[in-house]
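User: Before I run my own analysis I want an independent prediction to cross-check against. Here's the chain; please return only the structure tokens and, at the end, one sentence I can use as a sanity check.
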Amino acid sequence: MKIAIYPGSFDPITLGHLNIIKRAARCFDKLIVCVMVNSQKNGLFTPEERVELIRRVVSQLPNVEVDASSILLAEYAKQRRARVIVKGLRAVSDFEAEVQMSVINRKLNPNVDTMFLSSHEKYTYLSSTVVKEMVRYGVELSDFLPREIIQDVKKKTEESRRDG
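Assistant: Structure tokens:
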């Protein structure tokens, strides 16, 4: 079985992420979308909440599994017997950092390769950070987020504003 992992913070999952998930799912027997803890990012949603949101969004994709992990990606790939890490690239600026990470992952786990999928041109500007900023200003979100989670993102942003 060909298993791949699509890692990310997914805070929240965007239509750009979903585009990569759908395309990668066609290439592998199983695609594991893994919410990874990024120590440099403060999350709007907890990892558990992100997993739940992603599960709702990918429920129609039978070969996509959703998980969360706080261990190194190379070790996680080894544990899950995944041979490929899928990374989406929006721009040249993503490429440099992602290539560096792919070299490190291969050094830590020589059995894993990284496959880069370029972002669909509709989503090259899109990131979770940009989406969170647009939510704060009341922008219509249907071009940026899966419809299944728009209300969740609005509600969580409002709660975050009240608590912060």
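Sanity check: The first strand starts at residue 3 and ends at 8.
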